[in-house]
Amino acid sequence: MLGLLSYRTFIRRVSSKVIGIDLGTTNSAVAYIRDSSNRKSATIIENTQGQRTTPSVVAYNKDGKAIIGMAAKRQAIMNPENTFFATKRLIGRLFKDTEIQNDLNTVPYKIIENHLNGEAYLETTFGEQKSPSQVGSEILVYLKRAAEEYLSEEVDKAVLTVPAYFNDSQRQATKEAGRIAGLKVLRVVNEPTAAALSFGLDAKNDGVVAVYDLGGGTFDISILDIDSGVFEVRSTSGDTHLGGEDFDTVVVDHIFNVFAEQHSITDISKLKNNREIMQRIREAAEKSKIALSHFKETSIDLPFLYDNKHLNMRLTEEKLDKITLHLINKTISPVKKALRDAEMDPEDVDEIIMVGGMTRMPKIRSVVSELFGKPVNTTVNPDETVALGAAIQGGILSGEIRNVLLLDVTPLTLGIETYGGVFSPLIPRNTTLPVKKTEVFSTGVDGQTGVDIRVYQGERSLVRDNILIGDFKFAGIPPMPKGAPKIHVTFDIDADGIINVSAAEQSSGQAKSITIIPKSGLSDTEIQKMVDDANANKERDDALRQRVELITKSDIMITDTEDSFKRFHDTISKHDSFPDVLAEIQKVRRQIDHFKAHDADESLDLNELKRSTDHVQQLALQLFRDVSSTVNRN
Ligand code: AMP
């Protein structure tokens, strides 16, 4: 009778398991290590709706409560400004970054600058600010609970994945999302490395592997050597702001242009600023892009898109390939760079694994095959393999999986600023982790008693072109002639790629160190408070979330019915029962509006709303059946 126990009752033990979570730009997934008949294998855990992946979408209602995953995605059209998707593109980034500035007008929600730390944050129409880490944590909590329900144990340890090309701030911000979700993040693994772990765990897959990972928001390429359980990353490269969302944006622009042409609209900026229109077109753009991975041609129909005008167009695979070719080509130079860094030629690569939803696009597969001169390997599931690899890394850490060694690399060069804004590298990119390295620096002025240690990440020779990831003042050096003090600066990077920098002056024994922390403005105490708040309000939050999801479901059903009525108005309005059904719909619409306005009021009876929604659906269905049988008879 387990099914009758409440969630809280049956979860008592804290699991020793370490779950693996792929927190993706578009979709996320969770996996664990299953032990069946003495064989350990990574397995995806379905979410509470039985889905193997969960859309990385979080919507907020006016009480600040979150709706997550498919429920959030489905209500996006009605609530575009408070529905946050693809927020991984913002995580750990400054508002003034060019990539963020470019995104401002392509998403229907508001991205703002957080005044404490200059980072890109999100703002709801209710005036609440959310950090991308907070939004990410909502998805992590959702997946953590799915795992807990599935395993019937409390889960508090996880391995998270990040794009290989994420810098320190982005990694830290992802770890922070884990902490807000109440998870101990034991390791942060690079996504392509995780994919290779899952691919290569089968001993038959030894050899040189290139992982080409193009997801919703990021592109990574990693080259690995797999040999009897030792996974050595030879190089990695990529672009943290290139993915399916950019393909969607190109298709969105194309659709706007066709619509403007079809209806002789000269100024489309007004349409583009309409968040509901933008959301409808974005969804249609993504749908058609996906359809064109399976068909040569698809149609896009959006009735009453603007000013009683309908959009009706066809899109071919050939056209899609043509308008997005520049984006596909943008992945080529990182691939070449990774090959160069690994000191390999394309023919040295034995297998090319395709990861991330975008790699289902036939044109991408053909461009990559051509580049390597051999067919790409499509045997791995591009949506699941990263989470499976994260679970394997979790299994290695918990001791469930033995005889596997992972040697990952740092994706970007690390160093400090020296005189004149010059970047002095200490640890070159693609150095195997963990790593520790010390270099000696000195003062530039006689009698100088302090120096600023400013730590940067990047490949450019002047610091202003790289990313400042942390700084500290090193004071207390005894006055000496310039060049005399010997300041030992040590960089220590752990297996997560998290950096610790320390400085010590030899003659005086002065020493100081910092762990580079994200500039998110959230202290450990604040994060702990958020975790405590979430735990304290869990039962109420769950109940409220269920209410909101039910109201949203009814709203979607009624909106779908209203849309069909509009579309087929000419035919169905002639039917005798039409006025009665319409009146019933309007009644339920009023009910929904009332429930939406009072969704926190627990005394309202949701069953009544459910009953009337079902009733209207039946009536509408019958009406359509009657109309179509009349039409067929005539
Ligand atoms: P991921 O971040 O790996 O979940 O990848 C999601 C991205 O892949 C989104 O931009 C999707 O639109 C895209 N995608 C998913 N399936 C397909 C498909 N069959 N063809 C083209 N793109 C796809």
TrEMBL record:
InterPro entries the record matches: ATPase_NBD, Heat_shock_70_CS, HSP70_peptide-bd_sf, Hsp_70_fam
Top-level division of the source organism's lineage: Eukaryota
Catalytic reaction(s) noted: ATP + H2O = ADP + phosphate + H(+)
Gene3D superfamilies assigned to the protein according to its UniProt record, in alphabetical order: 3.30.420.40, Actin, Chain A, domain 4, Substrate Binding Domain Of DNAk, Chain A, domain 1
A Pfam family assignment: HSP70
Any one cellular-component term (Gene Ontology): mitochondrial matrix
The keyword ATP-binding is annotated on this UniProt entry: yes
GO biological process: one example: [2Fe-2S] cluster assembly
EC category name: hydrolase
CDD domains, per database record: ASKHA_NBD_HSP70_DnaK-like (cd10234)
Keyword terms, alphabetized: ATP-binding, Chaperone, Nucleotide-binding
EC number(s) stated in the UniProt entry for this protein: 3.6.4.10
GO terms of molecular function: ATP binding; ATP hydrolysis activity; ATP-dependent protein folding chaperone; unfolded protein binding
PANTHER family assigned: HEAT SHOCK PROTEIN 70KDA
Assigned protein family: Belongs to the heat shock protein 70 family.
Protein name: non-chaperonin molecular chaperone ATPase
Organism annotation: Eremothecium cymbalariae (strain CBS 270.75 / DBVPG 7215 / KCTC 17166 / NRRL Y-17582)
